[in-house]
Write a structure and sequence with these properties.
heterodimer, A: 252 residues, alpha+beta, 7 helices, 7 strands, 21% strand, globular, B: 174 residues, 0% strand
Chain lengths: 252, 174
């Protein structure tokens, strides 16, 4: 491999996008070329400078409301085009009140339900980090952790071993969130712990991963195969995403 | 409420990515108010196209719409930034001499990193934000930015070199 080839491929290497053979080529070149090895060190430094939460612009308060209003506007426009007589306007207004009661208010309550679960998950995570609260069954063996839940929960949580990928299974714990007992699976990434809360979903509808930040902890949650998953940790968002992607890949 | 209705699916698949949408719009327009306008317009488009979304990565799908909305917005309001058309050949990556850069990087505080990122050409800024801040894969970046997958790595290489040079320039100015 020439230095020029190396300096482009290095980026695929650092981003985990190269195949095994090229990875080996890169590492071989790194060992033998001082100049390129320094380029690599400089890129590592750059990467760590970019890994700052302060560079991420979160949506300002109020934008969600604006977006909701914007995405509801087309329906209102089509009503206006109808040119209805006055009495019908009153009837439509009454219908709007009914619609508000039946459609809009439940929508808010659903959102507040998500918010409540986020609070539960945050509290449970913080509590688990206090001395002696992390696990009920400390084990890195998924064959030990999974059966431990039998008889303690009305479902069998999926437990995956991600030790090879750098997320070491530490154990399992019973916890309480979303108004029910849930399984908490504990993983470790370096010095950071990740709690993965799992419980059955009432809905057969899968939902894509969503992200939130609560008191500095990253939260990712999704629903798949009638199961709710909530992951929370102080690892950065990209690493937590890597974790949740691995969990999903293992379970699909 | 029926959880399978289209508007509820939109709520679940698209709205959770509001932060990602705003972050990308903010970095591409370099202005908070403009970013808010772009995000609202992008969500309108997303709602319109939502029928064509057949599962998969909702975030990457939304970011592609946000990115195109940004470009349309820039063409309309700041054509000068767009006419400064990006040319891979002109912006040939020069490898920075590594050791002083390494030292300088460690001194670079976050404000400098932010300013240096904002000073990069649009096409470089976009791939860096998608990769470093959103953590998208090369495949997803290719989809969002409308470029070939093979181009993603070379553009990232140039963008990172460009950022290093920018940071070095910032520091030597003082």
């Amino acid at each position: 491999m020439t230095c020029s080839e190396f300096r482009t491929l290095l980026h695929g290497y650092m981003d985990g996008e190269l195949d095994l053979v090229r990875n080996v080529d890169i590492e071989e070149h790194l060992r033998t070329c001082d100049a390129c090895s320094q380029v690599y060190q400089a890129q590592l430094a750059l990467r760590s400078a970019l890994k700052s939460d302060e560079l991420y612009f979160r949506a300002p308060a109020g934008l969600e409301r604006k977006v909701r209003m914007a995405t509801e506007r087309p329906e209102r426009k089509s009503w206006r085009r109808l040119q209805v007589p006055g009495w019908m306007g009153a009837a439509l207004a009454a219908a709007a009140v009914v619609a508000l009661a039946f459609f809009v208010l439940p929508m808010f309550s659903r959102r507040s339900q998500t918010e409540r679960i986020a609070q539960d998950v945050l509290s449970a995570h913080v509590r688990s980090l206090m001395p002696g609260h992390l696990t009920d069954v400390p084990s890195s063996e998924n064959h030990t952790v999974k059966p431990w839940f039998a008889g303690k929960l009305d479902f069998s949580p999926p437990v995956v071993d991600l030790g090879a990928e750098g997320f070491e299974l530490v154990g399992g714990r019973l916890d309480y969130a979303a108004d029910r007992p849930v399984a908490a699976l504990v993983y470790r990434r370096g010095k950071h712990f990740i709690n993965l809360f799992v419980w059955p979903s009432a809905s057969a509808h899968d939902s894509a991963e969503a992200a939130a930040v609560r008191q500095g902890y990253n939260v990712l949650f999704w629903t798949r195969g009638r199961t709710n998953f909530w992951a929370i940790s102080d690892v950065n968002r990209a690493e937590l995403r890597q974790f949740t992607a691995l969990v999903r890949a293992r379970l699909s | 409420m029926d959880t399978h209705s289209p508007s509820s699916a939109f709520d679940q698949v698209v709205l959770p990515h509001l932060d990602a949408a705003y972050n990308l719009a903010r970095w591409l327009t370099r202005n908070g108010n403009d970013a808010e306008d772009v995000v609202q317009e992008a969500f309108l488009r997303a709602l319109k196209f939502f029928g064509g979304f057949h599962g998969g990565n909702g975030r990457a799908w939304l970011l592609a719409i946000v990115r195109n909305t940004c470009y349309d917005w820039l063409r309309r309001h700041r054509p000068s930034e767009m006419s400064d058309s990006f040319d891979e050949e002109v912006h040939e990556a020069v490898d920075p001499s590594p050791s002083p850069e390494d030292r300088l990087m460690k001194q670079a505080d976050r404000l400098r990193v932010r300013e240096a990122l904002e000073a990069l050409p649009l096409a470089w800024r976009e791939v860096l934000i998608l990769r470093e801040l959103e953590g998208l894969s090369y495949k997803e970046i290719a989809d969002v930015a409308g470029i070939k997958m093979g181009t993603v790595m070379s553009r990232l290489a140039r963008a990172r070199s460009g950022l290093q040079q920018q940071l070095a320039v910032d520091l030597t100015k003082e």
